Amino acid sequence: MGCGNIFFTLVITLSAALITYNVIISANAPLKSEFPGPSKTNPSIATTDGDGGFISVDPIIKMPLDRSKKRLFHTAVTSSDSVYNTWQARVMYYWFKRFRDQPGSEMGGFTRILHSGRPDRFMDEIPTFVAQPLPDGIDQEALKKIAPTWMNVSLAMKKDPEADKSFGWVLEMYAYAVASALHGVGNILYKDFMIQPPWDTEIGNKFIIHYTYGCDYDLKGKLTYGKIGEWRFDKRSFDAVWPPRNLPMPPPGVPESVVTLVKMVNEATANIPNWGS
Ligand SMILES: *[C@@H]1O[C@H](CO)[C@@H](O)[C@H](O)[C@H]1NC(C)=O
Questions:
Q1: pTM, rounded to two decimals
Q2: Residue of 145, 150, 152, 182 best suited for mutating to test ligand 1, as the one with most atoms within 8 Å of CB
Q3: Could you report the per-residue pLDDT of 94-121, keeping only the tens digit for each?
Q4: Residue minimizing CA distance to atom 1 of ligand 1
Q5: Residue limits of the Hydroxyproline O-arabinosyltransferase-like domain (predicted)?
């Protein structure tokens, strides 16, 4: 499928260079027609101008106040041609369309950025831009600028027992956010934008379910995180094989967020033609 002027509006990069993150749009979340501006909300603004003292300007850009002109969100997702990336992109695009077609939706376009360099079998199913992989040795200016700080910040966080414990294996991802802020790379933040099962248990009025953590429970509905549960859903079980249709639902007592996630995957796989092939 072609892709001329696709990057014309606000782009949400749902998944950066490494697609370890996967996101689906929350089933129960009402798609609000407006994000509240800063006057109405109190976004968690993180500033790090304490000890280091080298931030002089708040790098976080506030939500524009003038929202009189409706601007649609463009969703972009980077993907390889692996089974693992592809099934997730198909589920995601299914839910994108479901929400785009609802009244008051602010969903604009959707682009899968396929960085294998070759069209695949899903070009007609998902709007796709085929990107050539970067040749080895190419310098990417922004990354080059940020990378040394990123490493230093990662090491500093790793050495801080409290930070290390709080961030665990996603520490470098947070370090990246800190490093990019230190270099003045701005982001528009919106509080309560997404949830992460199994840690966030309720959907509330969040917009996105971000599923990266495995969900393991015993049959009484108790979380056994880090230990394979009697019931489990972990996207990494399906890195080389397609998840089957109709995944087993979790036992009673498992939180709404996890139940919704599995339901949404099941609804998508039930409705996408030729699933699993
Ligand atoms: C990273 O840390 C090293 C060692 O302390 C230092 O020499 C270097 O200047 C730091 N780089 C950046 C970009 O902060």
A1: 0.70
A2: 152
A3: 999 999 999 999 999 999 999 999 999 9
A4: 152
A5: 138-275
- pLDDT at residue number 157: 97
Query: Which residue's alpha carbon is at the smallest distance from atom 7 of ligand 1?
Result: 152
Dihedral angle computed from the Cα positions of residues 135, 136, 141 and 144, in that order, rounded to the nearest 10 degrees: 160
Backbone angles phi, psi at 180, to 5 degrees: -70, -35
* Distance from C-alpha of 58 to C-alpha of 12, rounded to nearest angstrom: 21
> Helix (H, G, I), strand (E, B), or coil: what is residue 75?
strand
Burial of 88 per CB tally in 10 Å (0-12, 13-18, 19+): buried
Q: Kindly report the average pLDDT of the chain as a whole number.
A: 80
Confirm if 10 and 73 have CB atoms less than 8 A apart. yes
What is the token pair recorded at 238?
């399906």
Q: Cβ of 67: how many Cβ atoms within 10 Å? A: 13
What region does 29 belong to: left with phi over 0, alpha with psi -120 to 50, or beta? beta
Distance 173 CA to ligand 1 centre (A): 19
Q: Is the pLDDT of residue 15 over 90?
A: no
Task: Kindly give the distance from the C-alpha atom of residue 153 to the centroid of ligand 1, in angstroms, as a whole number.
Answer: 9
The Å distance, Cα 155 to ligand 1 centre, comes to 11
What would the pLDDT profile of 171-229 be if each residue is shown by its tens digit? Answer: 999 999 999 889 888 777 788 889 999 999 999 999 899 999 999 999 999 999 999 99
Q: Are 126 and 110 in contact (CB under 8 A)?
A: yes
Lowest mean pLDDT among 17-21, 127-131, 165-169: 17-21
pLDDT at 139: 60
Q: CB under 8 Å to 158, separation ≥6 — which residues?
A: 164, 171
With a 6 Å cutoff on the Cβ, whether 148 touches ligand 1 is yes
Residues in the chain: 277
**Are the C-beta atoms of residues 111 and 267 closer than 8 Å to each other?**
no
